[in-house]
Amino acid sequence: MRIDIITLFPEMFTPVLGDSIIGRAQKSGALEIHCHQLRDYAFDKHRRVDDTPYGGGMGMLMKAEPIALCFEDICDKIGKRPHFVYMSPQGKTLTQQRLKEIAEIENVCILCGHYEGVDQRLIDEFIDEEISIGDYVLTGGELPAMVFTDALSRMVPGVLSNNECFTEESHFNGLLEYPQYTKPSVWRGKEVPEVLLSGHHANIAKWQKEKRLEVTRAKRPDLLEKIKEQQ
């Protein structure tokens, strides 16, 4: 997978996406992440990418043409049109299910909004979908883009050592993850559940399934309701 990110602050991404699992995946070639400075596509001496909104109102809006030029340049570079995502509080809330679907796409481009948003004409003509990471407003789209990129990258083959690394995690199949324990087997008088020490794989799998349901019912009963609605 190749992920292109259009942003006013490309330097924000290197510390987060250039290290650890995502950084190693880029070095191995399993994943490509490219950040593009939007101001490089501005066409005045001040490299302005924003202007006042028609009809009045507070704040500034991101102009359509610099974003369009940047996106078209990305299309030329990779030889095809990537799936274009705009990180927006007006978008649908990001879910693990949607991540699984987007992970099937080879090329994804992410637009990081700023100021009061983006000229609607750019959204109408270029954006394939708007995605939100929650019902709250942030200063810009960079942090949501990092969250989206990190979560999406984990689904790409070759990024994690084994698919089970993410298929057993919370939310992948609609349920939360079961409790996990490590050594020592007794910590401050608290013991690891005996079944996990038994070596009986069928019993362990049964326990894990039961605990996933138990944890989800206790912490996120709304997830169980969603599963029922989908059945």
Describe the structure.
There is one protein chain. The protein has 231 residues and is an alpha/beta fold. The protein contains nine helices and nine strands. Helix 4 links the parallel strand 5 (83-93) and strand 6.
Tags for this model:
231 residues; alpha/beta; five-stranded parallel sheet; two-stranded antiparallel ribbon; 9 helices; 38% helix; elongated
Strand order of the largest sheet: 2-1-6-5-7
Q: Shape from CA axes? A: elongated
Low-confidence stretches: none
**How is the main sheet built?**
5 strands, parallel
Describe this structure in a few short sentences.
The protein is 38% helix and 18% strand. With 231 residues, it is α/β, with parallel strands linked by helices. Helix 3 runs parallel beside helix 5 and helix 8 (201-219) packs across helix 9 (221-230).
Blueprint (SSEs and pairs):
Elements lengths: L1 E6 L6 H4 L2 H9 L3 E6 L12 E2 L9 E2 L1 H15 L4 E11 L2 H7 L4 E6 L7 H7 L2 E4 L9 H12 L10 H4 L18 E2 L2 E2 L9 H19 L1 H10 L1
Parallel strand pairs: 1-2, 1-6, 5-6, 5-7
Antiparallel strand pairs: 3-4, 8-9
Helix pairs in contact: 3-5, 8-9
